[in-house]
Amino acid sequence: MSAASQSKTGGSGGSKGELLAASEAVSGNRIPSKVSKGFERIEREDTLLDFFVAGGWGMYPTLLAGLGLLATSFQYARRPEQRYVPLMTALGLFTMIAGGLGFVTGIMACLRGAAEMEAALNPTLLAFGVQEALHNIVLALLLSMGAALLASVGAWRLSREARGGPVTA
């Protein structure tokens, strides 16, 4: 394959089929959303379900803990009572630990897949595997960020009550 045709297809020398099969073997999940085919580029939209599935099994405990965290933070925003704070703290920690564990196990699966196919190793494929493992961290951070926003509303309402002002929101 000439250098000109490689740059047009974005290829690294392997055929499309070989790269896609190797990508699935390394990551253990799905085909990347952007694939070069000849001179044209095929693109499809990634959905939230694709994002979730690509993250692997670690997404489930992360989502479960994060939804509990969001629910508790919502209650705290509505009624800022001290009894919600320990539960928010524990669920926030659980959400981040579950996301971190999903990331680590995803990296382990990616490296195990890469070691099994020594000859076909391609840095691009490792990048896809790491990117999919990071989905767990992204989910944990998004859920924690939403919960922190709700907890901030509760803290603001609590400070307004302490000053004796009206609480609106």
TrEMBL record:
- This protein's species is Stigmatella aurantiaca
Q: What is this protein called?
A: MotA/TolQ/ExbB proton channel domain-containing protein
Keyword Membrane in record: yes
Keyword list (alphabetical) reads: Membrane, Transmembrane, Transmembrane helix
What is this organism's lineage? Bacteria, Pseudomonadati, Myxococcota, Myxococcia, Myxococcales
Membrane-spanning ranges: 51-72, 84-114, 134-156
Highest taxon, organism lineage: Bacteria
